[in-house]
């Protein structure tokens, strides 16, 4: 257990032990495997971690959305130990074990949709998305997939192709997979059509008419896939009416609607699944892919869909050696139990309210803060040099990230333009810790804003 419940910096950063270990990394790990902060973790608890030099940090990155119930939750540790004493692994494709079907049953009940569902288990978000596409193509007997600008779906060949941002994810990794078509995402703060949300009359959804005439016929489209809230794209929430329009388009043309809930699921948005907000609109996806926080850090992901869709594959067509590993599945069952029992979704809403209030106050004080947005504890700040032109403040964003970790707070940037601060703090964070983190963040924004003003003045 950590002795401290708040951040504390006791050495220069990075500390001497981290510096020494960084030499080993440089010698042995490809440079393409990036990292945000040059620190080595020693242990973690809740929303904090201690590095090898004794510095303690608040983690507003949460393992990129994986640590919704915090570092090494003791009940999950116990569940992992209990299963490990029995067996680590036997492939579901050879010998059956109860955790696989048990977790599938739980997800079939939890994921929105008043219809019979089935679930398969794999290992990563990208693998879940890739299997969702395979299944959609198999069921519809169609080949084309529609994805969106700003999307992030993974780094395998297929999911990299579906991902929008070229650098760093796609640069020089082509040629890309065939059958992927891209639509403009309704990014209302930066409307790609130059319109205003209040008066646009849902112009973005109407673009499908031309798209189906000029780019691809709807009869060839197997699925439309999108994130309920774009993650790497900058925590962009599509308008409710747009989601309803997508469902109508899919129903009209026999196209499947796939929700990539890899980052937005497991209480992050104030619901167990972000698509629960869709259900309130009368919309349910045909397939949902989830991952990240399902098992508190162990690698497992899921594909849940309409039973007739999921059963479209022939025997042996889907699966994999490690898919639904029994240790990871045991952890996932315990994580979901904790989330339901401890009202973690409600905690997410509470965190989100505190964050948005502070963000709005910062927006009033600092011209650098152009937009604040989010749902539950999936919240973000978009930074701009000029609110009128919305010129992006990428350098300032990077400087704020650096300033934060030097003062004990780890945060992430995002967005196609690299000018969004996104926050994925563990949902077990205390109000005291949250406010300390927000203070560090505001101090960083104030400093960078002041530096920018001084530079412009010269």
Q: Overall 3D geometry?
A: globular
Percent range for helical residues?
A: 25-40%
- Order the strands across the largest sheet as they lie in space: 4-10-9-8-7-5-6
Mean pLDDT equals 95
Q: In the CATH classification, which architecture of the largest domain applies?
A: 3-Layer(aba) Sandwich
Set out the fold topology:
Layout: H1 16-28, E1 41-45, E2 48-51, E3 56-59, H2 62-65, H3 74-86, H4 98-110, E4 117-122, H5 125-140, E5 144-148, H6 157-162, E6 180-183, H7 203-214, E7 221-226, H8 240-253, E8 256-261, H9 275-279, E9 287-290, E10 301-306, H10 307-310, H11 326-341, H12 344-365, E11 369-375, E12 378-386, E13 391-392, H13 394-406, E14 409-410, E15 412-414, E16 420-423, H14 431-457
Parallel strand pairs: 3-14, 5-6, 5-7, 7-8, 8-9
Antiparallel strand pairs: 1-2, 2-3, 4-10, 9-10, 11-12, 12-13, 12-16, 15-16
Helix pairs in contact: 3-11, 4-11, 12-14, 13-14
GO biological process, one term: gamma-aminobutyric acid metabolic process
Protein name: (S)-3-amino-2-methylpropionate transaminase
Pathway: Amino-acid degradation; 4-aminobutanoate degradation
């Amino acid at each position: 257990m950590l002795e401290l419940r708040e951040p504390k910096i006791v050495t220069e950063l990075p500390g001497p032990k981290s510096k020494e270990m960084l030499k080993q990394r440089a010698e042995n790990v490809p440079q393409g495997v990036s990292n945000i902060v040059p620190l080595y973790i020693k242990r973690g608890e809740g929303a904090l971690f201690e590095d090898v030099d004794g510095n303690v940090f608040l983690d507003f990155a949460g393992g990129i959305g994986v640590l919704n119930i915090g570092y090494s939750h003791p009940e999950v540790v116990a569940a992992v130990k209990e299963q490990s004493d029995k067996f680590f692994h036997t492939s579901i494709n050879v010998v059956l074990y109860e955790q696989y079907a048990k977790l599938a049953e739980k997800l079939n009940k939890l994921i929105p949709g008043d219809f019979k569902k089935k679930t398969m288990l794999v290992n990563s978000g990208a693998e879940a998305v890739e299997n969702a596409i395979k299944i959609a193509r198999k069921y519809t007997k169609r080949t084309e997939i529609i994805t969106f600008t700003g999307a992030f779906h993974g780094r395998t060949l297929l999911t990299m192709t579906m991902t929008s941002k070229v650098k760093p994810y796609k640069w020089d990794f082509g040629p890309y997979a065939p059958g992927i078509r891209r639509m403009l995402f309704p990014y209302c703060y930066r409307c790609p059509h130059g319109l205003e949300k209040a008066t646009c009359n849902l112009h973005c959804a109407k673009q499908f008419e031309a798209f189906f005439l000029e780019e691809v016929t709807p009869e060839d489209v197997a699925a439309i896939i999108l994130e309920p809230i774009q993650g790497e794209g900058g925590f962009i929430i599509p308008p409710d009416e747009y989601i309803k329009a997508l469902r109508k388009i899919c129903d009209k043309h026999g196209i499947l609607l796939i929700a990539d809930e890899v980052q937005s699921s497991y209480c992050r948005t104030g619901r167990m699944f972000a698509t629960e907000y869709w259900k309130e609109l009368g919309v349910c996806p045909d397939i949902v892919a989830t991952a990240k926080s399902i098992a508190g850090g162990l690698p497992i992901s899921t594909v849940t869909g309409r039973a007739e869709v999921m059963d479209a594959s022939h025997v042996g067509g889907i699966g994999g050696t490690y898919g639904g590993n029994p240790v990871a599945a045991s952890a996932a069952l315990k994580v979901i139990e904790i989330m339901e029992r401890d009202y973690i979704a409600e905690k997410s809403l509470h965190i989100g309210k505190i964050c948005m209030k502070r963000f709005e106050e910062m927006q009033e004080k600092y011209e650098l803060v152009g937009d604040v947005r989010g749902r539950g504890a999936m919240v973000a700040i978009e930074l701009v040099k000029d609110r009128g032109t919305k010129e992006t403040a990428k350098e300032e964003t990077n400087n704020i990230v650096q300033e934060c970790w030097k003062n004990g707070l780890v945060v992430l940037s995002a967005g196609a333009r690299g000018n969004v601060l996104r926050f994925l703090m563990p949902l077990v964070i205390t109000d005291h810790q949250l406010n300390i983190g927000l203070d560090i963040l505001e101090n960083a924004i104030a400093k960078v804003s002041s530096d920018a003003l001084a530079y412009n003045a010269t």
